[in-house]
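YM 10:42: Membrane magnesium transporter sequence, as discussed on the call
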Amino acid sequence: MAVKNLHKFLLVVGFVSLIHAAYSAAQHRTYLRITEQEFNSLPFDIVLQAVVSLIILVYSILQVVGEFREIRAAVDLQAKSWETLGNIPSFYMFNHRGKSLSGQYEDNIDTSAD
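YM 10:58: structure's back
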C-alpha cells in the first residue's frame, strides 16, 4: 500500500514539475521578447527538467495503472469452448415469424369483430 502511495506521489510530482518546466519555457520566451533577443533554444535546465519530468510521469503512470491485458483476442477466448462462443444474450429474440410456422401457434387476432 505504501509503494502505491509513493507512485501516486511521484505522479503528482511529475505533473507539477512538467507544468513548471512549461511555465519556465514560456517565461524564458517572454524575457527574450522583452529584451529583443533572438530565440535559439531553451536553456539546458528547462530541457532537463522537462525530460526528467516525463520519465517520472511515464514510470509512475505505468506503476499506478496496474496490469496490462493482452491485446490478442485469442488469449481471452482460450478459456471458452466452441459452443459458447456464439452465445450472446443480447442477440436473443423471441418475437419472430418462426412462431407462425409452428403447429401449436395460435393466432390471437380477433376476426369476429366484422
